[in-house]
Design brief:
Layout (H helix, E strand, L loop, with lengths): L3 H7 L13 E6 L1 H5 L8 E7 L3 H4 L19 E9 L8 E9 H9 L3 H7 L6 E4 L1 H8 L8 H16 L10 H7 L3 H20 L8 H8 L5 H21 L8 H16 L11 H17 L1
Parallel strand pairs: 2-4
Antiparallel strand pairs: 1-2, 1-5, 3-4
Helix pairs in contact: 7-9, 9-10, 9-11
């Protein structure tokens, strides 16, 4: 099945790099649809990843020396918002926001436990719009990306949402709702969502994005006061501190294993990488790791 980006490009509505539509391996619906709190007027947020041309991932193939001379900008992501397809949904129309990352950038962000990127791998199956063998490899391996750093990332994002909750700018498309309820319901439910997600990560090493959809929907419908949201967040944050310390989740990502998955994906796409990179033998890698540790303590 062709990707949404491909279909919108064929209609002349989206304008990604020419090579991109044929090289997308994963697309999924994000936002309120993925969290089970969508409304009829919700835009369709689509996230995914692609694999760019080989000499973009391995620039030495085109003669570029990293750090020397003129550096060619490498592809990291394609974004295009407010793409209106009037023919979608049997003529009712649909507005799309597209964000497609290079697989390298995608892996880096997921490894850092960026909440949006983590969520994109845990969307319910009915949200997945396009997936290839490579996309399935990554989705099947999603739990390997999770680590205790998620607590700091998700809490930081939650604080950001909390700080925006009281905003009352007239430019906001939710301005009337903010006036009615006294605070921004969307930022409120995202605050709660992020904390509940990281609780699942710390206790279960996985995420069900729709597990708490009834609570999130109630917040988005204005059934909670701003004071209740803030008190809930404060209490939950305090409860999660000891949970972070007792969690059996690894403290940091297994970068070597994640890199191996990335190389497997690239090899599946390009074919053999033997003429591009030299994979170190296990013994050599172990020696390098030991030397790196010793050098760290020497300094």
């Amino acid at each position: 099945m062709a990707s949404i980006t491909y279909k919108l490009t064929q209609k002349g509505l989206a304008k990604p790099p020419k090579w991109l539509p044929d090289n997308i391996h994963y697309e999924t619906m994000m936002g309120s649809i993925a969290y089970g709190v969508s409304q009829d007027n919700s835009d369709l947020d689509v996230y995914g990843f692609c694999i760019s041309p080989k000499d973009d991932v391995f620039p030495h193939l085109r003669g570029e020396i990293i750090g020397f001379g003129r550096q060619i900008n490498r592809f990291e992501q394609y974004q295009e918002h407010h793409i209106m397809d009037n023919d979608a949904r049997a003529g009712k129309g649909q507005e799309y926001d597209l964000t497609i990352y290079s697989i390298v950038k995608f892996f880096q962000l997921v490894m850092e436990n960026n909440p949006n990127m983590i969520d994109s791998l845990y969307t319910p199956n009915d949200c997945v719009l396009h997936i290839t063998t490579i996309g399935q490899m990554v989705r099947d391996s999603r739990d390997m990306f999770l680590h205790k750093g998620s607590w700091h990332k998700f809490r930081g994002y939650a604080y950001s949402q909390l700080s925006k909750m009281s905003g009352k700018t007239e430019e906001s498309k939710r301005y009337e709702s903010v006036l009615k309820y006294g605070y921004d319901l969307k930022f409120a439910y995202h605050t709660v969502r992020l904390v509940l997600e990281v609780e699942q990560i710390l206790t279960e090493s996985t995420i069900d994005l729709r597990r708490n959809c009834d609570m999130l929907r109630a917040i988005r419908n204005g059934e909670w006061t701003e004071e209740k949201v803030r008190q809930w967040f404060s209490d939950k944050e305090m409860a999660l501190e000891p949970l972070y310390n007792s969690s059996k989740l690894k403290y940091k990502p297994d970068e070597a294993a994640i890199k191996e998955l990335l190389l497997n994906c690239l090899e599946q796409h390009y074919g053999s990488l033997s003429n591009v990179i030299e994979k170190p033998k296990a013994v050599n890698q172990l020696v390098s790791d030991i030397e790196a540790i010793l050098e760290k303590y020497r300094s």
